[in-house]
Amino acid sequence: MRLVSTYLIGLIFGVGISISGMANPAKVLNFFDIAGTWDPSLVFVMGGAVVVAFFGYKIVLRRPTPVLDAKFHLPDNPRIDARLLGGSALFGIGWGIAGFCPAGRCLPWAPDRSMSSSLSLP
Amino acid sequence: MLELSVIETAFTPWQSLAGGVLIGLASVLLMLSLGRIMGATGILAGVLTPSAHPDKGWRLAILAGMVSGPLALLVLTGAMPAVEVPVSMPMLVLGGFLVGIGVTYGSGCTSGHGVCGMARLSRRSIAATLTFMLTTGLTVYMIRHVLGA
Question: B67 and chain A: CB distance < 8 Å anywhere?
Fold first, then answer.
């Protein structure tokens, strides 16, 4: 039951990441290239996801426990430290160089859109 | 290595919004079922750590689901969503390496901090998200308009 439901949740997540454009480095990099070929689409990804999660969490967290687990596993570390900020800064630099975030990198690529085709670009 | 290649992409507000809603929905459903944060970093870390990580099963199931996502789209629509990589191989490797170190130290990425943490109004996640959005923007600017100009 746990595995079937988490598989389906992963499927929804994977479809969402795919159609949103988050797994497409060209789109991600253009989102950040406000001074160049700006593509603001990712505002809608983050906006849609955060709004749905905000209200959804509010409803879900009223329950005493999750449906298939004994308790909610919420991070409760309040510290904003150098490790958090340094790590996040480094992640951003890497994301800005390659255009892939961890979720996007997990997804399979269509064969005709693979790296070889992109490497032939000027 | 830094030769500039830029691929223009179309503005897709509705498709991106639909994708975002699905990402949010998946996050809510994971909280409802297992009480967990839908963070790709945490899920990957849980799977990749060599030790017998407790509860590897659900993480593997989510990853399997994620991988099936684009394949399901391929079956349904006849095409997988575009993945265009305007980045050379050495830069991809370098970027991927920095992403890996960064999310490990920063305890999260776009999904964990940027979506789930922001939705919980976690100060830590808001700080992390603002930080990586800023450095990503600066990096893209540097590469495309300073170094690559």
Answer: yes
ipTM: 0.94
Query: B82-123, pLDDT tens digit by residue?
Result: 889 999 999 999 999 999 999 999 999 999 999 999 999 999
Nearest CA to B30 out of A30, A58, A2, A122 is that of A2
> Measured between alpha carbons, how far is B104 from B95 in angstroms, rounded to an integer?
14
Both tokens assigned to A49: 């996801």
Among A63, A78, A92, the residue with its CB nearest the CB of B135 is A92
Residue B53, min C-alpha distance to chain A (Å): 16
- Give Cβ neighbours of residue A122 (< 8 Å, ≥ 6 apart): B3, B5
Q: Domains of chain A: which residue ranges?
A: 2-111
Maximum separation of any 2 CA atoms in chain B, in Å: 49
Nearest to A46 among B3, B25, B114 (CB): B114
**Helices and strands in chain A, H and E counts:** 6, 0
Q: Which residue, chain included where needed, has tokens 């999904």? A: B111
First-residue to last-residue Cα distance in chain B: 14
For chain B positions 105-134, those within 8 Å of chain A (CB to CB) are 105-107, 109-111, 113-124, 127-129, 131-134
What's the whole-model pTM score?
0.92
Contact A31, B86 (CB under 8 A): no
B50 phi and psi, to 5 degrees? -65, -30
Q: Is the dihedral of CA A29, A19, B15, A9 positive or negative?
A: negative
Rounded-to-integer distance, Cα A87 and Cα A92, Å: 9
From the list A32, A52, A84, the residue facing B25 with the nearest CB is A52
Looking at residue A115, its pLDDT comes to: 44
